[in-house]
Description:
Number of domains: 2
Distance between the termini: 10 Å
Number of strands: 20
Strand content: 25-35%
Amino acid sequence: MAGSRAGARGAVVARLRRGHAQARVWLTVAALLGLGGCVGGDKQTSASEASGSTSGAVTSSTVTTDAATSTSGTGTTSAAGGTTGTSGAEACDPVETFGEEPSGDLPDCDVWEQDCPLCEKCTPYSHDTGSNWNDLGCVPVVARPKQFSEPCTAKGFSGFDDCDKGLMCWSLNDEGVGYCVGLCVGSKAEPGCEYAGLCVIPGDEITNICFPSCDPLLQDCPGEDGCYPYGRALEWICAYDGSFPGAGADGDPCEFTNNCHPGLHCSPEGDRVPGCQAASCCATICDLEEPNTCPLKDQGAECVPYYAMGEAPPGKENLGFCGLP
Length: 325
């Protein structure tokens, strides 16, 4: 059974969602393979280590120097909070806040080129004031913008938030509070991430997000997000808890990878999860080198290898899940 485990996990489709306040992003194995998911370099190894970083160096080996230059921004933030052009001369007067939620269309832009005027950024927004991002437009960058993985606020799906250029406010709660994630850099043909993460390009090519990389044993994601497997579980990324009310705990049925609470995953081996009455059920992530702390250990659960023999990515050799041996 262990030999087929990785293949079974690869068949699990990932849906990343958060209730009514977050746009639904559908992520499948086919999307990862066909649309060019890309792993960032080793500037940061986890979302927690990246917190507070303001470096703009592109570290993904798939992004060329020319592509990185075209997306690295055209201004720098001064100590006083103003933004200056590359020549050092004052170029504009940044806004202090993003004001009232606007309506109507914003000026068009290219999210890969970040070709908006100085002190503005190209970002996803809703052109029909709906609850989903469906267009790209230029919006002002606030004077003291938030950086990668820092808490942020957004005016609904207007595109107006307090994240810096090349970032957007993601994983919003009902109050419009989330954290800053990077937009993919480079090009669709050679996408990359400025910070450790996975570039995922959806079919509409609007929300080209670099989902932060994470450690499933540390659960080191920003905000309230959990660390979930993506694709064939060779990558682990931060995503919001997409469990339904009263569900998401050990033994609860699930269909998508983030239908479980943070710290758990949707196991396609339901017959190995005590109490599971479905093909796939939530199971707690555990460390093979630690004592048995599985919530259902009184029903026979113990920490069993997550990956089949020889298939664990580097650093994940001790990763397990709570199941029947």
